[in-house]
Amino acid sequence: MSDTTMDQESEKSKGVFSTLVAVGDSLYLKGVNNKAIDSYTTALSIKPDDKTCLVGRSKCYLKMGQFGNALSDAEASLQEDKTFFKGLYQKAEALYYLGEFEFALVFYHRGQKLRPLMQEFKLGIQKAEAAIENSVGSPLSVTLEIKGDLTFFQKDEEREQPITAIQHLTKGKKQQTQKIPKSEKTTKQLLGEFYSDRKFLENLLDNKDLSKGKTKGGERVQDVIQSCLSSLDTCTKFLSKEKPISASGRKHQMKHNRPYHSPLSDPAQFLLKSLDEIDAELTSGNAEGSLRKAFEVMKTVQAWSEKDVPKKKEVLGSLHSCIGNALTELGDIDKAMEHHQKDLELSTQCNLPDAMSRALDNIGGLYAQVGQYTQAIEFWEKKIPLVCGGLEKSWLFHEIGWCHLELDHHKESRDYGVRSLAAADEIADWKWQINASVLVAQSELKLGNFQSCVSHFERALTLAKLEEDHSATSAIQKALDEAKQHLQQ
User: Fold this and answer.
1) Residue 141 pLDDT more than 80?
2) 282-329 per-position pLDDT tens digit
3) Residues paired with residue 220 on neighbouring β-strands, in sequence order
4) Residues 405 and 457 occupy one common structural domain
5) pLDDT of 346 strictly over 80
6) Which domain holds residue 394?
7) Could you give the CA distance from residue 387 to residue 240 in angstroms, rounded to a whole number?
8) Do residues 342 and 317 make contact, with C-beta atoms less than 8 angstroms apart?
């Protein structure tokens, strides 16, 4: 085989790999995890050690409750690069859902040390600590077994440090707990929510049985914990320079600390605050916390009379929606469906178009997620008269069209793709212009309208290049080349 032929084969292989990964990413975002896994697996047959692809498949396994497979892929993504923070986070998540809370905590901390400002690691530390305390009591009583993969405690000089402002402050310093020349109160103000993490580590350090142990690499666990504490202390020093605590700063902080309102004294304020907290928990990735809070609030609201809360059914519908969303994130589709159906029932009784639209949206999404596309179409089509905005129209028409495409209803998928594209054109949204153009092109290809197919793929490709979306560009270019072959036949 000539060098030219080999280069062509290599480029073709790269193109196929990129397309498969892009398809996997898209299917994962749509919640079609089983098909996403198939796409990632095929991609890994071309590049078995691609760490990004391994993490993508691990995320799918996690969503499907296959935690062992999720852990295996996460560990494989770290084989060549122990500092790959996405792999670290995925490994911590898999360990957490396997019930290995202590080891999950360790990997969350390692990731936080590499990416101090990454919110996901901070939230992971919080939920792992809460799980440990719920299981065995206070941190002082925790005894971690010295087993498993604890090779993460490498020397700083053995790994590449992240390029952050923190790096320059820690360079050349020994990994030991540095004393902060600040009062405990000031340290707490500077670290904010990270302060509880520091106290947790200090409590672990007090556990003599734990601190005397060693990792597989031969390092003392005591040194490991001190290393994590050192990172937090460095952050404290850095923050003290960036945002020193002043009298005016303290006043500003106090201004935003609203007093607690009991449910009975101020129902409206309580509900607004509670719904914000439920939504914030879910948005930050803490589905369990969101679910727990939603159930607590629902119990309170159910005990109230219509006099206390004139719009009680509306509130309960919102809470059912919140519970359904949290259960969806946790993978309990059947129970999630029950709560979204209850939301639809209550919103219909109260004749609330926005709430009805919300419930129909969620129900359709659940059916699509489990591959029941006919039912998804049924509920999403009921939502169409309730939609006003161009962006939501474009999205909705695209999703309905995509379901028809999955059912081999190619004419219907094309028609909805055209409607999605028209809505996207009205608001000049390039993302949905690309998505809709690709949907129309795929449908036209199945219908045998090759010229129209090529035309829509070319439009999508032009937009993707203009927006410098390299992943989309690669996938669309591959599909376009295949479509042009049909024109030549």
Assistant:
1) no
2) 888 888 999 999 999 999 888 888 887 888 889 899 999 999 999 998
3) 214
4) yes
5) yes
6) 387-489
7) 49
8) yes
